[in-house]
Specification:
single chain, about 600 residues, mainly beta, 3 domains, six-stranded antiparallel sheet, 2 helices, binds (2R,3S,4R,5S)-2-(hydroxymethyl)piperidine-3,4,5-triol
Length: about 600
């Protein structure tokens, strides 16, 4: 090749490399704090409306995400601190322009007090102010008052945009509204610190509670008397359980902590734990949320728990409903948190007020029924009304059409004498006389456990590779190959799936069941959790093609077939069709039931 062509090519490669390097390392310098806020009419609120826009006294959606509340004895006001994410589009996605402060006397109507801690726009600012540049991330501020130093102390999660900084920052002020003076950040006790909260105990001792060790383990760390440093005394709790978004209260002498799982901005199931001593041991109890969407914390994530004013023993659970596409538009989900027989309960209301919410609690009632059969729901149920237990007549409301479909649906209990409707009923519809219910993934779904109670199943576990069942002695299971995978998403029997990843047409997930000769109904549950429109499959039962080149349904569907067996065996094969074209088109199956 001619020398000049080589030289030119080398030059072009260098120019391109320089261009790419420059783009990757180009720093965004924000020298002015600008807000992007819609203007709304100012509203006088008399209730909470979870998930709706919440307008402040200036006519803007409240910007106090990941927030917490301080009640200030001096001013007799509540102060709500949180992330102000009303940044314009050119700001980094997770950026913050500061920690907002709002004040209120009734918790419904909030006055904007400005940024208690503002981002620092000077591009040359050195540490500690460099922690607060607008291209950084600061989250979940919490403020407590120190009775000895008479200072308001704020702790917050301080981050780099790639979330590798993992530090806790501290700031102080003489006034609840700020401005707070930023003192700097640290890795408390030498460990990472991300989602965090503060807790001030009755004796004035305060604790920083933070997700550490790559969010795997939570730390509870006692602060020094001035609340500005770690005392050195700390414990590790919920080890390797990846809990974040901690919120903590003391109720009747015990400590209760609610946390979320770690799924970024996506909602997940909350859990709570209880301890006699804040340093543990902590006993994990389970999900405090009840009713529809309880498994997703009503599409939100915990941030704080506030004692309800003038209502001893009652609390407000504060959570964020994140909008990952526009974090500034994220909403607040505030709900009553109550204790019934020592059990923490968070129930959803579209609208509620502290004045009008009677504490009425009834346990969830789950009944099984077979297809097209009226479920045996009770006519009276036990209800706790303001802590008093009584037996109350109920009428059940549900959509009768659902009885013709396999799966679970909800029923509302209308408690007649109280004129209250509670969403506490669950109706599970199954085929009659099942001999197999394979819920294709190793985790036992609640449906599998329910069916197991009332049917003599020949499968003693929810799923396994083909072989003899150690309990029933019958052979059943899937054909094991190196390409068979299970995706556990244990929300219901449709959501966990078994898949064949071989990417070969004709291969698939193949199940075999030993059965006595006779006639059967075979139920195949299909659902594509990823709603892939190109996932073409073939479904064969006992070698006979039942569905050809069809797309695995994005909705949850049960395919039902009559089968006559002469050779002691039923096979169900869900195979990859020739029409599937790429890696993400693995054939899937959710469950297989066999009934007489
Ligand atoms: C979940 C945390 O709870 C939030 O505060 C925030 O850090 C997001 N993760 C970031 O993905």
């Amino acid at each position: 090749m001619k020398k000049w062509i080589l030289a030119l090519s080398a030059f072009l490669v260098l120019v391109l490399a320089f261009f790419i390097y420059n783009r990757a390392h180009r720093k965004m310098v924000i020298t002015e704090i600008t807000l992007k806020q819609e203007e709304y009419e100012v509203v006088k609120y008399e209730s909470f409306k979870p998930g709706e826009l919440w307008i402040d006294d200036q006519g803007h959606h409240i910007q106090a995400h990941g927030g917490g509340i301080l009640y200030d004895e001096k001013t007799k006001k509540y102060y709500w601190y949180g992330e102000n994410k009303a940044y314009p589009d050119h700001y980094p996605r997770n950026g913050v322009i500061g920690m907002s402060c709002y004040s209120s006397t009734d918790l419904y109507n909030w006055k904007y007090e400005g940024l208690a801690l503002s981002a620092v726009t000077d591009p040359d600012a050195g540490y500690p102010l460099s922690d607060l540049k607008p291209d950084r991330v600061f989250e979940r501020p919490k403020v407590i008052y120190n009775d000895k130093t008479k200072k308001y102390v704020m702790w917050a999660h301080i981050e780099s945009p790639d979330y590798s900084y993992a530090r806790a920052g501290v700031a102080i002020s003489d006034s609840p509204t700020g401005p707070f003076t930023y003192l700097g950040s640290e890795r408390p006790n030498g460990q990472m610190s991300r989602d965090m909260t503060l807790f001030k105990d009755d004796d004035g001792t305060a604790y920083l509670i933070y997700a550490s060790e790559h969010n795997r383990t939570l730390y509870i760390s006692k602060l020094t008397d001035d609340y500005l440093k770690q005392s050195g005394e700390y414990v590790r709790v919920f080890i390797d359980q990846s809990r974040e978004a901690p919120a903590i209260i003391k109720h009747e002498g015990k400590y209760y902590m609610v946390t979320s799982a770690c799924t970024g901005w996506a909602p997940n199931e909350a859990k709570y734990a209880v301890a006699d001593n804040i340093f543990g041991p902590w006993t994990e109890i389970g999900n405090p949320c009840i009713g529809e969407n309880a498994h997703l914390t009503f599409y939100s994530q915990s941030t704080f728990i506030l004692p309800m004013p003038n209502q001893k023993g009652r609390y407000i659970f504060m959570a964020d409903r994140w909008n990952p596409k526009n974090l500034g538009d994220s909403r607040y989900v505030w709900l009553p948190l109550d204790f019934y027989d020592g059990k923490m309960v968070i129930e959803y209301f579209d609208e509620w007020s502290m004045e009008n919410t009677k504490r009425v609690y009834a346990e969830e009632i789950s009944v099984n029924t077979t297809l097209n059969t009226k479920p045996g729901l009770p006519h009276t149920i036990d209800v706790l009304v303001e802590g008093e237990k009584g037996s109350y007549k109920v009428e059940w409301e549900y959509d009768k059409k659902n009885l013709g479909t396999i799966g679970q649906f909800k029923a509302n209990a209308k408690i007649l004498d109280l004129n209250v409707t509670k969403q506490i009923g669950k109706i599970n519809v199954y085929p009659a006389n099942l001999i197999y219910f394979v819920d294709c993934a190793p985790d036992e779904s609640k449906e599998y456990l329910e069916v197991k109670k009332t049917n003599n199943l020949l499968n003693s576990v929810s799923d396994k590779a083909y072989g003899v069942d150690p309990v029933t002695g019958k052979s059943w299971g899937y054909e094991k190959t190196k390409d068979i995978y299970a995706y556990n998403e244990n929300t219901d029997m449709f959501s966990s799936v078994r898949a064949d990843e071989s990417q070969v047409a004709g291969n698939g997930v193949k199940y075999k069941f030993e059965v006595p000769n006779g006639t059967y109904k075979v139920y195949v549950g299909l659902h594509d959790p990823w709603a892939n429109s190109g996932r073409y499959m073939n479904l064969e039962v006992n070698g006979e093609v039942k569905e050809k080149d069809f797309v695995c349904p994005a909705d949850k569907r049960t395919y039902i077939y009559d089968v006559t067996v002469n050779n002691g065996e039923i096979t169900v094969d869900v195979l990859r069709s020739e029409k599937s074209t790429n890696n993400s088109h693995a054939p899937l199956v959710s469950f297989i039931m066999i009934g007489k």
